[in-house]
């Protein structure tokens, strides 16, 4: 990956005792492959809601940068299972989309069934079932679990290798998470 390639990392943060239906903070960090931060954008999504995909699209549009080459997401279930629809997101953004998690997991079907019921559960399961399968990638000492649209395993490995330091969290996601936490604290203090 060229040093000037730009990756939009997206992460969310909520603190405290927030309840379903309340807002959570979303942050996007545009980071070059050489780890230089090149832009930030902020938005909101609903805890336990169904607006995560639209929130990421709005964040991308707010950033207004045609030079974004990849969108890197911190998982597919931000804000208490407000699921991201990767195929819909890749289609809306016309960019490869890669969601990364850092822990082994049997999947989200069980937790979704515990958290939701009825039509709400059906909608969440329908989004979850549309997502590509999760795959494991080792980078240095670290292991990542990724799923994506618009890129294959070799390209995902190159993306993660170029943006992660010694197997740690990829820099676009690390910066986005820091920004989301700071914005969330700011929002809470208002």
TrEMBL record:
<comment type="similarity">
    <text>Belongs to the UPF0215 family.</text>
</comment>
<protein>
    <recommendedName>
        <fullName>UPF0215 protein HacjB3_03650</fullName>
    </recommendedName>
</protein>
<dbReference type="Pfam" id="PF01949">
    <property type="entry name" value="Endo_dU"/>
</dbReference>
<dbReference type="InterPro" id="IPR002802">
    <property type="entry name" value="Endo_dU"/>
</dbReference>
